[in-house]
Amino acid sequence: MSLDTQANYIRTIFDRIAPVYDSLNDWLSLGQHRIWKHMAVKWSDAKPGDTCLDLCCGSGDLAQILARRVGLSGQVKGVDFSPAQLANASTRVASCYPPLPIDWVEADALNLPFPDNYFDAATMGYGLRNVTDIPRALQELHRVLKPNAKAAILDFHRPNNSTLRSFQQWYLDNLVVPAAQQFGLTEEYAYISPSLDKFPTGSEQLQLARLAGFAAATHYPIAGGMMGVLVITK
């Protein structure tokens, strides 16, 4: 499968799962993803008045947390390549008062439509695992961040512990995929397991971040290594 074909396949998946994305994330994370997202925003060091990026924003959870952190004097760009996800994100914040300072942008993580050294902080939730070129995505993130700015990247991982790894696979096979099946989305969520198999480990992510030009990188395992946050500094 070519990279363009793979990208189109992933975009189609996320367009299809957009209406039930939040419900299925609750299943997938045992309801803990909201806590982990707050942790990621904290580790991004976003401050009031900052201009921030939420890359692969999905339904906009991290973008909303960032927006409340930067306040009305700040700005958040929520970026995703799935128009259905962006429509869902926009609908979710439409009734917020005061309005949240978020612009929703349809764009590719591998070719961001922003100038160099633009953002004060960035987050990325469950997106790095799904890009077709992880090194290039990290290079683009490095390019658009200001010097000394941080990014916090949250994603699912394969745990090193064999018992936890077996539990994770059992959970995916017996709870997550059947839950997705109720929405007619079995194929869309069945891709999670192979995507985890291919995703770089925490130590591999540190190496990729340094190769992308980041001056500092730390990886924090969460939930016994089934989840992790990569914190990188330009």
Automatic annotation (TrEMBL):
It comes from the Bacteria. GO terms for molecular function: 2-phytyl-1,4-naphthoquinone methyltransferase activity. InterPro entries: MenG, SAM-dependent_MTases_sf, UbiE/COQ5_MeTrFase, UbiE/COQ5_MeTrFase_CS. Keywords: Methyltransferase, S-adenosyl-L-methionine, Transferase. Its EC number is 2.1.1.329. It holds the Pfam family Ubie_methyltran. Gene3D superfamilies: Vaccinia Virus protein VP39. It catalyses: demethylphylloquinol + S-adenosyl-L-methionine = phylloquinol + S-adenosyl-L-homocysteine + H(+). Pathway: Cofactor biosynthesis; phylloquinone biosynthesis. One of its GO terms (biological process) is methylation. HAMAP family: MenG_phylloquinone_subfam, MenG_UbiE_methyltr. Methyltransferase required for the conversion of 2-phytyl-1,4-beta-naphthoquinol to phylloquinol. Belongs to the class I-like SAM-binding methyltransferase superfamily. MenG/UbiE family. This is 2-phytyl-1,4-naphtoquinone methyltransferase. It comes from Microseira wollei NIES-4236.
